[in-house]
Known about the structure:
Blueprint: H1 2-14, E1 18-24, E2 30-35, H2 57-66, E3 71-74, H3 77-87, E4 94-97, H4 107-121, E5 125-132, E6 142-147, E7 152-155, H5 157-163, H6 170-173
Parallel strand pairs: 1-3, 3-4
Antiparallel strand pairs: 1-2, 5-6, 6-7
Amino acid sequence: SGGVFHLLAEKILSQGGAVYGAAFDESFEVCHCRVDNIDDLEKLQGSKYVQSRIGEVFRDVKAQLATGKLILFSGTPCQCEGLVSYLGKPYKNLYVVDFICHGVPSPRIYRDYLKFKEDKLGKKIAMVNLRDKSAGGWRKHVDSITYSDGSTEVETTYVDLFYSNLALRESCETCKYTNIN
């Protein structure tokens, strides 16, 4: 859960380490990035419900590990396994944390959803929250989009698509990590 991730990340950062996780970029696409200080940790928090773009992160993790830096990497179970495989050997200064994975929609479906929302209302998106707890806490899962004019739309369209499994990537259907084992 996010609470545990925050505690782990704070500990790593307080010891001069770095934390890698999924964040929204300026276009609200989800990508992995590195955080080196507690002030930037907030961007790695919050549910994303879409496969993040890894980019050069594995390479960067390996370079940081080689310097002896303490590293925390958070991602989907398959991303965590991908990093461990890429590294090819264990590192005492590496902590890897994943979560119980349901599977993830493709970035294309997520991008198309955001574009549909902007086109439908004729407004630019200013913020996305894919697990907005302001409308029912943990019991009611909704997403919210805040637009550039300050208006906010709270709904379940994307989350319903996620839970219906209609938007999951094909690879998630046969993935050995999309279960509690």
